Recover the amino acids of this structure.
């Protein structure tokens, strides 16, 4: 019996010595698993914080490249440095690199975040409006096929659909959620975003002065000055100046010969424009705010690119049509259908920018303007005010004027017409974590 | 002397038997605890492994190393169901978008595990063979939300789904123990981080 007791004690001791440590090992392994996950998460969060702090610095000071070195945060440290990179079309972007170090349980955890910021242009908006006005709302049946920004209050009724990212400065009217108002923001919505309209086209005009072409009204005769432009599909434009009783010669020239940086500024007059563009061009009608004789552009026919911009791999044809006042699709001279009809179905492929006025047609309430079809803008619209294209029937169909479709040119996400106005802000192009 | 010897023998048999039973029970308890603790550790390790894999991939939704070549970021989710999702992400950083699919199998795909309710998780990149993860999953549920954090009802149409937030709920149980035994681990991410989804 003594031997048996000894054997039992020995076996019990053996069991405890072998299996006991395993139990402690499981407990310590569980703790190690927890600390590893916690360490990785903390390192990641610290790196993200570093990137956010740097992005905020760049928002406050676009020239900021100071970075951070071993800054303490939440028990760890992070480093940030900023590099600049230039795209093939000359745009300077900034890349934020944020690395973190978090130490726990004698283990070091590292993480890296990269954020690429690029300057944004007004061409990146399918529709930009400085003001919607009190009596105008996005309503059921309205669709915006690209990014949209309202730099005031966005008026909404019914269920309009926004396919791209939508932002507004002062929220929505009515404030959402609201019964009966169900907009669909399929690309997301952010309020409190301010993107002010530029006070002038100064930078673009300076570019035209430096390496482009400036049309200045001659001293005589008296009268209103205008430039009539026809875009040609062989990379040329045909233009003719006019002032009062004087009309200049009809001139056809290569765009880049006339304006090496493809930027034309009519300094104190109106523009009449139509045609098919091959190449890149920005043209500005410069003038005084509120004037009907300067700073306006009139679209007298279709404006198209030589290559369809909606095709995959579309070329580089891009037009920026800018006016200090308004851009109008006018009634043709002597409009009197059917003898002198208006154009049916107008196509405009361009980035359209009206700085103090609106993009509209003066046929919108013309009682003879029936059955005209639609105005289809493929590109971008930036406008101070919203313009009218039609007078509706009681059922919402068009009574006078045109239906309007605004479709975004996706190439404007990454490119824009030459010397097109920038918003002055950076946007996040990619976030790598 | 005779009676005392018998009493000694009986008493020693009783004591020895009691000790035997105590030792055997203790051995059983230690073995059981070892087995249970081991499976608990497996569950905890599996949950961190799975969540790390998911977080790594979901953070890349709509990410492209060459952002100029992919601008429709809000359309990066191409399919979404209650237990599956497909999205576009530049997984290898070469500037071309890859299609990443997560979906689950059925419990019958794992006939040899003691838990009758666990099912495998599959991860597929483009048209490569799907990788199977047998981690004791018993719940793998997605929920989708729009810009106002309003739940979206299935089925969701694509493109232009309006899905901007994703919620994922995971429950793991030990793959080596029956469903009624062992610990489980529950993980829910209320808003899976996909910062590139709303850049454009």
């Amino acid at each position: 019996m003594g031997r048996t007791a000894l054997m039992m004690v020995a076996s019990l001791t053996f069991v405890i010595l072998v299996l006991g440590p395993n139990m402690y090992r499981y407990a310590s392994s569980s703790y190690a698993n927890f600390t590893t996950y916690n360490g990785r998460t903390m390192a990641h969060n610290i790196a993200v914080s570093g990137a956010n702090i740097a992005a905020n610095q760049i928002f406050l000071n676009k020239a900021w490249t100071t970075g951070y070195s071993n800054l303490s945060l939440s028990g760890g440290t992070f480093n940030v440095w900023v590099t600049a990179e230039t795209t093939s079309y000359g745009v300077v972007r900034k890349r934020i690199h944020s690395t973190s170090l978090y130490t726990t349980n004698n283990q070091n955890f590292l993480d890296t975040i990269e954020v690429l910021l690029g300057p944004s242009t007004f061409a990146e908006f399918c529709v930009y409006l400085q003001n919607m006005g009190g009596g105008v709302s996005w309503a059921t049946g309205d669709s915006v096929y690209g990014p949209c920004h309202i730099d005031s209050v966005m008026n909404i009724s019914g269920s309009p659909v926004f396919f791209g990212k939508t932002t507004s400065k002062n929220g929505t009217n009515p404030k959402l959620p609201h019964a009966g108002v169900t907009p669909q923001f399929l690309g997301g919505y952010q309020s409190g975003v301010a993107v002010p309209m530029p006070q002038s086209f100064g930078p673009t005009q300076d570019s035209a002065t430096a390496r482009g072409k400036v049309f200045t009204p001659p001293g005589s005769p008296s009268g209103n000055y205008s430039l009539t432009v026809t875009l040609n599909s062989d990379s040329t434009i045909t233009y003719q100046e006019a002032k009062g009783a004087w009309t200049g010669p009809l001139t056809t020239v290569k765009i880049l010969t006339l304006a090496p940086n493809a930027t034309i500024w009519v300094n104190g007059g109106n523009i009449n424009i139509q045609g098919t563009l091959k190449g890149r061009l920005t043209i500005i009608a410069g003038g005084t705010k509120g004037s009907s004789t300067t700073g306006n552009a009139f679209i007298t026919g279709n404006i198209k690119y030589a290559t369809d911009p909606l095709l995959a791999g579309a070329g580089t044809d891009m037009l920026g049509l800018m006016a200090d006042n308004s851009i109008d699709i006018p009634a043709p001279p002597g409009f009197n259908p059917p003898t002198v009809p208006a154009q049916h179905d107008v196509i405009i492929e361009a980035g359209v920018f009206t700085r103090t006025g609106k993009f509209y047609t003066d046929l919108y309430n013309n009682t003879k303007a029936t059955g005209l079809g639609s105005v289809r803008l493929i590109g971008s619209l930036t406008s101070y005010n919203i313009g009218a294209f039609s007078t509706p029937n009681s059922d919402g169909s068009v009574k006078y004027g045109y239906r309007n479709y605004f479709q975004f040119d996706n190439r404007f996400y990454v490119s824009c017409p030459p010397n097109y106005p920038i918003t002055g802000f950076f946007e996040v192009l990619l976030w790598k974590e | 002397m005779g009676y005392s010897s018998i009493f000694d023998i009986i008493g020693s048999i009783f004591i020895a038997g009691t000790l035997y039973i105590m030792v055997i029970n203790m051995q059983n308890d230690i073995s059981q605890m070892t087995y249970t603790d081991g499976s608990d550790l497996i569950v905890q390790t599996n949950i961190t492994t799975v969540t790390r894999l998911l977080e790594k991939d979901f953070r890349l939704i709509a990410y492209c190393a060459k952002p100029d070549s992919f601008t429709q970021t809000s359309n990066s989710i191409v399919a979404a169901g209650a237990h599956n999702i497909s999205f576009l992400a530049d997984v290898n950083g070469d500037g071309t978008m890859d299609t990443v699919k997560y979906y689950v199998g059925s419990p019958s795909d794992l006939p040899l595990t003691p838990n009758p309710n666990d099912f495998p998780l599959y991860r597929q990149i483009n048209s490569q063979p799907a990788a199977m993860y047998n981690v004791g999953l018993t719940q793998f549920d997605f929920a989708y939300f729009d810009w106002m954090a309003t739940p979206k009802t299935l089925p969701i149409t694509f493109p232009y789904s309006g899905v901007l937030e994703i919620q994922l709920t995971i429950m793991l149980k030990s793959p080596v123990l029956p469903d009624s035994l062992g610990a489980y681990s529950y993980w829910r991410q209320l808003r899976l981080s996909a910062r590139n989804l709303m850049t454009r």
Remarks:
- Chain A has a mean pLDDT of 92.
- The radius of gyration of chain A is 31 Å.
- Helices of chain A lie at 2-60, 202-211, 255-258.
